[in-house]
Amino acid sequence: MTAPPLDALLALLALDRLPRTGWLLAGVPAPESIAAHALGTALLALALGPRVAPALDVDRAAALAVLHDAPEALLTDLPRSAVECLPEGAKAEGERRAAQRLLAPLSELALTRFQEYQAGATREARFVHLCDKLHLGLRWLAYRRAGHGTLEEFRGSLERLECAEFAPCAELQRALLAAAGPRAGGEPAR
Amino acid sequence: MTAPPLDALLALLALDRLPRTGWLLAGVPAPESIAAHALGTALLALALGPRVAPALDVDRAAALAVLHDAPEALLTDLPRSAVECLPEGAKAEGERRAAQRLLAPLSELALTRFQEYQAGATREARFVHLCDKLHLGLRWLAYRRAGHGTLEEFRGSLERLECAEFAPCAELQRALLAAAGPRAGGEPAR
Amino acid sequence: MTAPPLDALLALLALDRLPRTGWLLAGVPAPESIAAHALGTALLALALGPRVAPALDVDRAAALAVLHDAPEALLTDLPRSAVECLPEGAKAEGERRAAQRLLAPLSELALTRFQEYQAGATREARFVHLCDKLHLGLRWLAYRRAGHGTLEEFRGSLERLECAEFAPCAELQRALLAAAGPRAGGEPAR
Amino acid sequence: MTAPPLDALLALLALDRLPRTGWLLAGVPAPESIAAHALGTALLALALGPRVAPALDVDRAAALAVLHDAPEALLTDLPRSAVECLPEGAKAEGERRAAQRLLAPLSELALTRFQEYQAGATREARFVHLCDKLHLGLRWLAYRRAGHGTLEEFRGSLERLECAEFAPCAELQRALLAAAGPRAGGEPAR
Amino acid sequence: MTAPPLDALLALLALDRLPRTGWLLAGVPAPESIAAHALGTALLALALGPRVAPALDVDRAAALAVLHDAPEALLTDLPRSAVECLPEGAKAEGERRAAQRLLAPLSELALTRFQEYQAGATREARFVHLCDKLHLGLRWLAYRRAGHGTLEEFRGSLERLECAEFAPCAELQRALLAAAGPRAGGEPAR
Amino acid sequence: MTAPPLDALLALLALDRLPRTGWLLAGVPAPESIAAHALGTALLALALGPRVAPALDVDRAAALAVLHDAPEALLTDLPRSAVECLPEGAKAEGERRAAQRLLAPLSELALTRFQEYQAGATREARFVHLCDKLHLGLRWLAYRRAGHGTLEEFRGSLERLECAEFAPCAELQRALLAAAGPRAGGEPAR
């Protein structure tokens, strides 16, 4: 048995300090951390997963969600504006290498689960990709209710989300948009 | 199919804002959130779980870790000094009722997984209980290296942790204590 | 003369780091500390106390206000959702024991003043109970003006507050509600 | 009876957001607020006051402590470096005018208590002046134990504090310096 | 050649921790630092400066902007309410002495540039004075869009700003007010 | 004359919220912003620039410093671990495109100055590159003195910095290392 992966475990603690940069750029003062987003995605998978038919392996979906942004402990959360400026494919390549450096020492299972998520070839992986986006929508609803403005671009992302494969995801999408109410007339278009 | 549990999902977002109060009381200025602790516990389960023999259901262990502190979204994180002042058993009773209110609407699976964790009757549940404590030890090591003082009580908890059932846990316990180095002479005993 | 109560004094410093959890759960990003709430309650007692007829002992009321949440340095601020999940009477019992552990070493006077507040048998104690609630209303007004949403439950608490015993308290209650303006149509009902 | 002093009460809420600037300049990342310092000074008066002989009016001392930095809601906390650059006497003049603008509308009692503190002619006022400095010493001890460096100038202030008039104050001064231990060899002299 | 001015350089780092107090008093939770304001003023000078006719020395204007609030590392940012309470001219005198203590050791050029800014006798100095105010307006627009309330006093300052000497400044003033939209009916007048 | 570049100016405000990620990953709780680093680099240029022989255009150097990290308002601050995971040259390409999108609308001068910095062909540009690294060293010294641990990798960067072209830079390098004192025996090697 190999030694415990102390360096990788210490590096992963940074997920609690690293902010989700999209919220920062949109003016949210002390936004959600990457860690909180990953946990929330896993909780969402545990909430919606059991409602999906035919049945998913919900525990594996939770594990995928726990790991889905873990490489950002080395890469940080690159916002859309960064991805647009970096060369085509740079972010995906960065995630691959960061996963290799960080998750391979953790355990072979951890790396395998991350790669399943990234490949998106299983139903569980595609389901967790939707949970990732729906958790963004949930956070948007909460920030909007709490009075944060200038977040309308996040509504657009939620509206355009393609949820047809998983009915409970489509239902939550509708519930989030209904709870948010209509686009405010005075809100800047961004 | 029932409506998506929007209220419970919004309530769970508080895990990102709620601090782990033990660090606050010990003087750590902007400590880890409950969400970050739960995510870290799940990552630890994915790191150590595959090394355990005989094999564990590691995905289910990850799900247990994701849920293990979820009721604190209603209850908040009660530090040791609070538990000592509250009536005997009050905290466990509070967790039970909070889990019922928060996790039952999420999904039957979420509640079942939390109850498995709380009962501690399966190997996976006992393993995640150790991961919970070892993540505290990992955070202690990181805070200590980062220069935070007055955290020696956390070393004591780590030293006293009983890890015999799971060898990889005992190994990480030893690695954490070795990495921390000796108790500083000048450190207050608390 | 006994030694200065250094441990109790150090423990009370935590009141500056411990957040008022009701605001946290309602989505206020970096809310008021318990210390700031206690100071604000004392300032309110010094503002309204001299207007009360027949005259109150305003200095003693200020001392009651300074101490009224001091046990939370051990217990933390238990939000309504926590109180609802804990066994009946657990919070009051927790406060009693925390006061004993923290305030008895401070001074007999400190413990006596806290117990007077908790018993609510004197006019000064009942007056400070109202100042505690009115300071919550004042903070609500300020957060609302600053743009925080989803705080309508705090308006309800203020509206229902029974202020008949102390006319200046009733007057401030009316002034706060008038300054807040009508319930916004679009505000979620929570 | 005059209308409740809503504007003054709202202005005083700023004491929770305004930092004690001496700690900021010394590199403490998220230091104590003015509100927390004022509350701590009042708690210290309630701890040491009953030990003073001949007896003090401890409740009035608590009221003095609650008010002693209230004008800083308009003036902010001017650190030593600011006082050295401003014209002689500017800070005291600023406090006088700020007290007039902020505390006179609060209540005549509030202004009277502040002026008693500022004049320093009563034993209660001089006692609270010492509690103000001793609370600084208490905070210094806590920050030092928590690992903050470069705070040795605060030790010097505590060592030079003249506590002869009130024996319990002198005792706490000795206890704080004893608990801090010797000046570290490697600490920069500042 | 004299030794590098290490003490002055270390003191200037405080500009990152010191908040712009006007935003704090208006209820913005974690407002802009003095450092960020100075950088933003310099960026504004580099944006508008090249559009001014006849041509300005834009590089020197950037240097003036970098230095224009540097003495606040010793003095802190005195809000309007503080200036109104301090004796007439105290703030300007404080800035002069702070500049002498902090910028003279930095370099003769640094002190000269600050004095040029303070005197306001050159076109570059007057231009940077306007950039300072326009950056406040820009920040106000961003905070307003982000949902912060109670900032209408900042609109008034922007409306009253006299920009006639520099056409591109007047244009930005108009653009900021147009982007902010009309004064909200429900906004408190302050 | 074209319209004022309002969108670019609003986007640049993000520099105040975006953290310098190297400090975050090393465990500094609320580290310096990108804006504060850019301002500090400009102040350093104004301090050391006038001491350089033969004379530099110090005002232009200040302008280069103000702009040197401005594209990070779109790109965020990519830490070393991210650069190592991204494809070769991705960061430089990202900066080029971000500068084009953000600085071209600001003014032709702003883009020209940034490109001069990035090319490093002038003495002023090479001098500001050194100021950028020396400001990192200055911040490291301050964090180290304030008690932050685990920052020894930053010492190594400072030791290896090649300052031969500009004597005042070499002098500050020596002064920073002397002020930091010897590498602590107990400090983890990272």
Account of the 3D structure:
Six copies of one chain form a homohexamer. Chain A has 190 residues and is mostly helical. Helices cover 64% and strands 0% of the residues of chain A. Chain A starts with 5 loop residues before the first helix and ends in a 10-residue tail after the last helix. Chains in contact: A-B, A-C, A-E, A-F, B-C, B-D, B-F, C-D, C-E, D-E, D-F, E-F. At the C-D interface, helix 1, helix 3, helix 4, helix 8 and helix 9 of C face helix 1, helix 3, helix 4, helix 8 and helix 9 of D.
Give, in order, the helices and strands of chain A: HHHHHHHHHHH
Mean pLDDT of chain A: 94
Model regions low in confidence, pLDDT < 50 over at least 5 residues of chain A: 186-190
User: How would you sum up the global shape of chain A?
Assistant: globular
Index terms:
190 residues, homohexamer, mainly alpha, disordered C terminus
Protein topology:
The structure is a homohexamer.
Chain A: H1 6-12, H2 21-25, H3 34-48, H4 58-67, H5 72-75, H6 80-85, H7 90-106, H8 108-119, H9 123-145, H10 152-160, H11 167-180
Helix pairs in contact in A: 1-7, 3-4, 3-9, 4-8, 4-9, 7-8, 8-9, 9-10, 9-11
